[in-house]
């Protein structure tokens, strides 16, 4: 005991009162440059590192907040069969699923919403990577079918933000069936003459890349996003070759013609609004009216040669 603990500390405590409740993790470490960023700065900068510009992963609802106008509405999704195969590894799949549902506060790995972007009506779907790696099972398939149907119903473009490890292995063949299912769903949007835009976020791999995610009318990605089918290490081991620098990154794919645009998170709203405006506004240039067809009498057909056929 000394004068600090006996006298100074109680004085300080009474002076400042009880310690205020402070949120945990006030500082975040950037996984790319390892610099510390204050949580308010990070939120203000849309979870993009203020030092190196690294785009951190964000949840589905945060993604909607960042992209859609205020007042967007989440759509209730139809129930999908839970654990149809009664799958079990070290734990039961249904347990893992319930745990993920409780943590994320949603039924499965995709959130569907309708709203607008700078006044342009849209239907949006966003993957939640923290929900079992954003993997695609029956629930995700159902969500994408619902989003596509809603887009057609509302005559609105469909925008999907992907972030997925691929098919959900615990649902076996049922998860693989979601690949053609989501492709057919997004075809409905295209057949209705509506834009289908895909924004590939970090990471988008496996069965999601191999299905609807590569079929957008416009393919956008966030900077530095990892996009591929199999992982780089698996490919390296298979082809026994060293892969080039930046392989499977958004910038590399843009250079090689797989993507149309790489857009920073801060510019995503404006870019999407501009694209929708361009795709949805009727052509302003009025084409000259087609010339009146001039009715000319057809030349008389020559009489068939040869003997006339008796009636
Ligand atoms: Zn950084």
TrEMBL record:
The gene is accD. The lineage of its organism: Bacteria, Pseudomonadati, Pseudomonadota, Alphaproteobacteria, Acetobacterales. This is Acetyl-coenzyme A carboxylase carboxyl transferase subunit beta. Binds 1 zinc ion per subunit. The keyword Metal-binding applies. Residues 287-311 are annotated as: Disordered. It comes from Belnapia mucosa. Its EC number is 2.1.3.15. PANTHER family: ACETYL-COENZYME A CARBOXYLASE CARBOXYL TRANSFERASE SUBUNIT BETA, CHLOROPLASTIC (PTHR42995). Zn(2+) binds at residues 30, 33, 49, 52.
């Amino acid at each position: 005991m000394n004068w600090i603990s006996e006298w100074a500390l109680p004085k300080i405590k009474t002076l400042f009162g009880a310690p205020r409740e402070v949120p945990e993790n006030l500082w975040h470490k950037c996984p790319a440059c390892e610099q510390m960023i204050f949580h308010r700065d990070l939120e203000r900068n849309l979870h993009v590192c203020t030092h190196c510009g690294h785009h951190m992963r964000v949840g589905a609802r945060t993604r909607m907040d960042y992209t859609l106008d205020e007042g967007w509405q989440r759509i209730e999704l139809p129930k999908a069969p839970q654990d149809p195969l009664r799958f079990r590894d070290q734990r039961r799949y249904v347990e893992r699923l319930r745990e993920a549902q409780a943590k994320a506060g949603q039924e499965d790995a995709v959130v569907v919403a309708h709203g607008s972007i700078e006044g342009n009506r849209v239907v949006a779907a966003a993957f939640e990577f923290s929900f079992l790696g954003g993997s695609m099972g029956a629930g995700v398939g159902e969500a994408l079918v619902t989003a596509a149907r809603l887009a057609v119903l509302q005559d609105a473009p469909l925008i999907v933000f992907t972030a997925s490890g691929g098919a959900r292995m615990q649902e076996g063949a049922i998860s693989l069936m979601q690949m053609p299912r989501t492709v057919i769903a997004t075809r409905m949007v295209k057949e209705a003459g509506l834009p289908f835009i895909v924004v590939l976020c970090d990471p988008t791999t496996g069965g999601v890349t191999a299905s609807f995610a590569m079929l957008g009318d416009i393919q956008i990605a966030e900077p530095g996003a990892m996009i591929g089918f199999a992982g780089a290490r698996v490919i390296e081991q298979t082809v026994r070759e060293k892969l080039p620098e930046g392989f499977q990154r958004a910038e590399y794919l843009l250079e090689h013609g797989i993507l149309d645009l790489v857009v920073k998170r801060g510019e995503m709203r404006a870019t999407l609004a501009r694209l929708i405006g361009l795709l949805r506004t009727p052509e302003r240039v009025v084409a000259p009216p087609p010339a009146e067809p001039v009715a000319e009498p057809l030349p008389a057909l020559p009489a068939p040669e040869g003997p006339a056929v008796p009636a």
